[in-house]
Design goal:
heterodimer, A: 398 residues, alpha+beta, eight-stranded antiparallel beta sheet, 14 helices, 55% helix, 13% strand, elongated, B: 67 residues, mainly alpha, 2 helices, 0% strand
Chain lengths: 398, 67
């Protein structure tokens, strides 16, 4: 690498890092509790406990759940019934009407049922997330800084800056290490050099993790527009032949359990995770839309929507999922670190802490530069890899 | 560490490459395996880079520092 190229990469590393460091610090600090959100959620849970049942006890009929929900809120519509395969719960999302819901998604609320006893365990006032205000605040800070879609896109851009910072950091690593062993931390020199060495050591050791979490972070921030794109293209194309027909009245619908059973019988290799009612903005006016997933380790990450005719109960079709949503689905576990038990979560937390140290040390290196003598400070960094100039010009010849 | 001999590209990238491969393998082991021995393999593969940082930090000598 020529000296000029190195300076350019170094400039890129400095500015890409400076732009995103503040936001990345927020992301890393809020990400730490989010790694353990299941545990924190359980700990903060204030609903009734699950019924204790024998293994293999039958789960409740979805029609009974729907009937109870309608009894509790007469006149309201059911949007989705979500069947958890992890915890024995069935969640029912309701709204005053489809029009109210479309105008204000916060008009929706949910009811949590025990999937064996069928009793109501908890209710939410609005739909906003999982009902734990602490985790909601932390999650919103992490994802969009309370700024909705624009916040998501902005944080996606910051994640992109972070990925650029990591890549440029890896590029400038080699010239700095020409005269040093791997992992050398020059503790007997200046404090600034020690921080530089620590920054280089930690950054290069966790670079693969940083890149994976950065790239999957970008993909996750794009999930809203990606799902929107899919609804506008594939979903609309599937429903187009039916366009113009009037929507169905509630009395015309087959029961949700019947739709669920149809999917189970037609696709025995899939697990149905949620039933979206006809009329929902997330579904179809004429069908139950049942989300299914596979039963193998990898396929259980891949969700596919299936349409069931809401009047006849016949299996209609599975809607093809485009590659960009498949990529999004695979990105999720790789970003959250929640797919390998508690040890993986702890490791994820330690990687996150390492990332925080890298950010802080990078910031410290920039702040501790000599005021108004930036170029000199940079020169000091370049010179830090003792007599590096011949090394670099030697490299240019390579 | 004190010797100023010029390191070759292979010498510089040997450890970072090994660590990156271990990290990726660790991430994929847990994602594709999801059970038993695959998970344990993943934990070891991912913990190794972190332990390496700790090992290098332990060798730090803070007393001899000129600020």
């Amino acid at each position: 690498m020529t000296r000029r190229a190195l300076r350019r990469w170094f400039w890129l590393h400095k500015w890409a890092s400076l732009i995103c460091t503040g936001f990345l610090l927020v992301t890393c600090l809020t990400g730490l509790p989010l790694i353990f959100r299941d545990e924190i959620g359980d700990w903060l849970e204030d609903g009734l406990p699950y019924a204790v049942v024998a293994d293999g006890a039958p789960t409740i009929n979805l029609d009974r759940v729907a009937a109870t929900a309608r009894q509790m809120y007469p006149g309201q519509v059911i949007g989705t019934i979500f069947i958890d395969d992890d915890e024995p719960k069935v969640m029912v999302a309701m709204a005053p009407s489809w029009a109210t819901y479309t105008a204000d998604p916060n008009s929706a609320h949910w009811i949590k049922f025990d999937s064996h006893a069928g009793v109501v365990l908890k209710e939410s006032k609005s739909f906003g997330g999982n009902g734990h205000s602490f985790l909601e605040i932390v999650f919103s800070l992490h994802r969009d800084l309370f700024a909705g879609l624009y916040g998501e896109l902005f944080m996606g851009l910051m994640a992109l800056c972070f990925v650029v910072a990591v890549i440029s950091g890896v590029v400038v690593y080699a010239p700095f290490m020409r005269r040093l062993d791997f992992g050398a931390v020059r503790s007997s020199h200046s404090s600034r050099l020690r921080w530089l060495d620590l920054h280089n050591l930690m950054g290069i050791v966790v670079m693969a993790w940083l890149l994976v979490v950065g790239v999957t972070g970008i993909v996750n921030e794009l999930s809203t527009p990606l799902f929107g794109l899919w609804q506008l293209t594939d979903v609309r194309a599937t429903l187009a032949p039916l366009g113009g027909k009037p929507g169905l009245a509630e009395s015309e619908l087959i029961s949700p359990q019947a739709a669920y059973d149809t999917v189970k019988a037609t696709l025995p290799d899939m697990t149905a995770t949620s039933v979206i009612f006809p009329g929902s903005p997330f579904g179809s006016p004429y069908h139950y839309l049942v989300w299914t997933k596979g039963k193998q380790p990898l396929t259980s990450r891949l969700f596919s929507p299936v349409l069931v005719d809401a009047r006849s109960g016949a299996f209609v079709s599975a809607i093809a999922m485009p590659w960009y949503l498949r990529a999004l689905e695979v990105s999720r576990p790789l970003h959250f670190g929640d797919y390998g038990g508690m040890p993986l979560k702890i490791i994820w937390g330690l990687f996150d802490l390492t990332a925080i140290i890298i950010l802080v040390s990078g910031l410290h290196l920039w702040l501790s530069r000599r005021p108004s003598r930036m170029r000199e400070a940079e020169a000091e960094l370049f010179a830090s890899c003792a007599s590096s100039a011949p090394a670099m010009s030697g490299e240019a010849a390579e | 560490m004190s010797n100023t001999r010029r390191r070759s590209t292979v010498e510089i990238w040997r450890w970072p490459a090994v660590l990156a491969i271990m990290t990726i393998c660790g991430l994929l082991c847990a994602l594709l395996g999801q059970t038993g021995v695959w998970l344990v393999l993943s934990w070891f593969a991912l913990a190794f880079p972190l332990l390496l940082i700790v090992r290098h930090l332990c060798h730090l000598n803070f007393e001899d520092t000129r600020v």
